[in-house]
Automatic annotation (TrEMBL):
Residues 214-500 form the Hydantoinase A/oxoprolinase domain. It comes from the Bacteria. Residues 5-193 form the Hydantoinase/oxoprolinase N-terminal domain. It comes from Rhodococcus jostii. SUPFAM superfamilies: Actin-like ATPase domain. The lineage of its organism: Bacteria, Bacillati, Actinomycetota, Actinomycetes, Mycobacteriales. Residues 521-691 form the Acetophenone carboxylase-like C-terminal domain. This is Hydantoinase/oxoprolinase family protein.
Length: 700
């Protein structure tokens, strides 16, 4: 028997899904354990082993691989919880990371922040100036050496950083993506002085044009690399002691995994790894259900995440933004706000009710957890409204205290707003649904899609309690709550479904139509890189898929569009076809006739993505079918539930998910209790259990 395990480490809970080569799928959930998240990983693996009825050592000895997703990298960067690092760059260019290309004032800001020009600042520098030093050297735009590297000046700068306690150094020299020799020599010099220092080179982390983004990407990767190395090294050692046979893999932002030993070398690629797990899971489940256009939504303990699958493929982006800095990392496009189940409700100075972005997280957690938390959260409101069961979560392993929830809402929300506790809880529920609906609208509608053409998948511990409401906000007609064996561990299911995906890129700007031989050389170089990296993963693949693309733009514009280039040899006709496809994609993104071919088209960055296909990944098994649509055998009672503050509490049927069968149809309002989540079926909707045990919510 061989197992594949996906482990999703969130801010509040750690989820795991196990699949074997016989088609068995198991899911487990355990509290996360900050600051040492590895304890939560071992805890959830113990739960899985218990479900199998064997010791954890026996389970791990038969495990083909573990795919691990973590928010630790992203959380460290967002919260600024990173160690000091040094930065070495070309003489005269140190201040580029502080000037921030002017973009630092507004990148990643909300519309309100963009309009508040006087309130904008660049006070979010990555490192203090004393840790940003220069070296004498210079390359031209073609990579030719104009000024040789002054090795003695480089040594002086390195020693200055090390004397100040720096243990990790980012190196980003001008035009190094055209010729990396100076950067590589600086790394040698660092290791001659101290071989234990962690060094990241921009020519390896981000070989892409544009100085500010390349510098920021390299610095951030250096900030999280040592911590990721230590965490994964410690976790893998503990797993090996417990007899793990296969490799430990780490999810990347691009939707694929990489060997844990390789991940720290390009640590920035793991930022947002957990965010992409749900999208990968949606693609996998969509293949089973025949859905090609999917809105994947995940309401976890801390965040609300939205990703799109269009025509069977996840929507991708070539960069992202973290703390007002552009980051060059290929990623699945996932939008997030701090609006999870543990998001804290608060009243702003203007007397307006706000939800998030701060979260109660796993410690102390929502007030109802009884762990010392005093701030009201979405979870507290849902308990007061009757949505969550008073007997607790995780099948009763996580007890809930309604009195503590009521007290937190009373003191922090109800009394300041002059509301009853019940009305305050209903207001929290309504605001949560409205702001998650707003993010859906931004993600789907503003990208030029019609929500009515999509099916919405809702997962995460809190997602099924809110999905029908936020889907209604944007006009989605059908909601799928993946239940079956994965329930609220759907992101972990996505991790277990992932293959190895590696990407390499290189900027080589040129006007179109370019020489096909030039494009072939660039693609051949990148393909050689990713195939060599695949060979270092320690896995046997059933096949390898190669995808190629070029980031193109109109001359004098900044908006680049990733444009697919077919495999095989390129000729003039192929280059012309790529230009045509760029214009088609540009029109889809920015509107018909918005392009201007007469201005000329430029090819900027080449990218190759290699997917190593693993022997097997989870498919959800079919569940037993019911003799009729009547769900009465699963009915376990009624309770007062409020889903709309204007209506108040109404008697609501409650069902035990474990007793529901394929074909059962529930008429709202109804509550379905699952050990790891709670599903709300509102009035005027029906919930139908499909052949895989998922629940489809649709208007009556």
């Amino acid at each position: 028997m061989a197992y594949v395990i996906g482990v999703d480490v969130g801010g509040t809970f750690t989820d795991a899904v196990l699949d074997d080569d016989a088609g068995t799928v198991l899911a487990a959930k355990a509290p996360s354990t900050p600051p040492d998240y590895s304890r939560g990983v071992i805890d959830v693996l113990e739960v899985l082993a218990g479900q199998l009825g064997c010791p954890i050592e026996e389970m791990l000895a038969n495990t083909h691989h573990i795919a691990h997703g973590t928010t630790s990298s992203l959380n460290a960067l967002v919260m600024g919880n990173v160690p000091p690092v040094g930065f070495l760059t070309t003489k005269g260019h140190r201040d580029s990371i502080y000037i921030m290309n002017v973009e630092g004032r507004y990148l990643g800001g909300s519309p309100e922040q963009l309009q508040n020009v006087m309130g904008q600042s660049k006070s979010h520098g990555l490192i203090p100036k004393k840790h940003a030093l220069e070296v004498t050297e210079r390359l031209d735009r073609d990579g030719n050496v104009v000024v040789a590297l002054d090795e003695e000046s480089a040594r002086r700068s390195i020693r200055t950083l090390l004397a100040d306690g720096i243990t990790a150094i980012a190196v980003s020299l001008l035009w190094s993506f055209r010729n990396p020799t100076h950067e590589q020599r600086i790394r040698e010099l660092v290791h001659e002085i101290d071989p234990t220092v962690f060094v990241s080179l921009s020519s390896e982390v981000s070989p892409r044009i544009r100085e500010f983004a390349r510098n920021a990407t390299t610095i951030m990767s250096t900030q999280i690399g040592p911590g990721l190395r230590d965490y994964l090294g410690s976790l893998e050692s503990e797993l090996r002691e417990r007899k793990l046979a296969g490799p430990l893999l780490v999810m990347q932002s691009n939707g694929g995994a990489v060997a844990a030993a390789e991940a720290p070398k390009n640590a920035i690629s793991t930022v947002g790894s957990v965010l992409t797990g749900g999208v990968v899971g949606a693609v996998s489940l969509g293949k089973q259900l025949g859905h090609r256009n999917i809105i994947a939504t995940d309401v976890g303990g801390t965040t609300f995440l939205v990703g799109l699958v269009v025509d069977g493929e996840p929507v991708r982006a070539s960069s992202t933004i973290i703390n007002h800095h552009p980051i060059n990392v290929p990623t699945l496009e996932v939008h997030a706000i701090g609006s999870g189940g543990g998001a804290i409700a608060w009243v702003d100075p203007g007397g307006n009710l706000q939800i998030g972005p701060h979260s109660a997280q796993a410690v102390p957690g929502p007030a109802c957890y009884g762990q010392g938390g005093i701030e009201p959260t979405n979870a507290d409101a849902n308990l007061v409204l009757g949505i969550l069961p008073e007997h607790g979560l995780l099948g009763g392993r996580k007890p809930l205290d309604k009195d503590l929830a009521r007290e937190a809402i009373r003191t922090k929300i109800a009394e300041p707003l002059g509301l009853s506790i019940e009305d305050a809880a209903a207001a929290i529920y309504a605001v949560q649904n409205a702001q998650t609906g707003d993010l859906l609208r931004k993600t789907v509608v503003e990208a030029g899609h019609d929500p009515r053409d999509f099916v919405l998948y809702a997962f995460g511990g809190a997602g099924p309690a809110h999905c029908a409401a936020y889907a209604r906000e944007v006009g989605v007609r059908e909601v799928i709550v993946p239940l079956g064996q994965v329930a609220s561990a759907f992101s972990a299911y996505g991790l277990a479904s992932s293959n190895i995906v590696l990407a390499a890129e290189l900027s080589d700007p040129a006007a179109m139509p370019l020489d096909p031989a030039r494009a072939e050389r660039n693609f051949a170089q990148l393909e050689s890189q990713v195939l060599e990296q695949l060979n270092r993963q320690g896995l046997t693949f059933t096949g390898v898929e190669i995808e190629r693309e070029i980031d193109m733009r109109y001359t004098m514009q900044l908006a680049e569009v990733a444009t697919a280039v077919p495999a095989g040899s390129l000729d003039a006709a192929g280059i012309h076809a790529a230009s045509d496809l760029f214009e088609q994609r540009y029109a889809e993104l920015y509107g018909k006739d918005s392009g201007f071919r007469e201005a000329g088209i430029q090819a900027i960055t080449y990218r190759v993505r290699a997917t190593g296909l693993l022997p097997f990944s989870p498919t959800l098994p079919e569940v037993k079918s019911a003799d009729s649509a009547d769900p009465t055998p699963a009915h376990i009672g009624t309770r007062k539930v409020c889903l709309d503050g204007r209506i108040g509490y109404v008697d609501t049927d409650v069902y035990d998910y474990s007793k529901l069968l394929a074909g059962h149809v529930l008429h709202g309002p109804a509550i379905i209790e699952v050990p790891t989540t709670t599903v709300v079926v509102p009035d005027d909707t029906t919930g139908t259990v499909d052949r895989l045990g998922n629940l489809t919510i649709a208007a009556q």
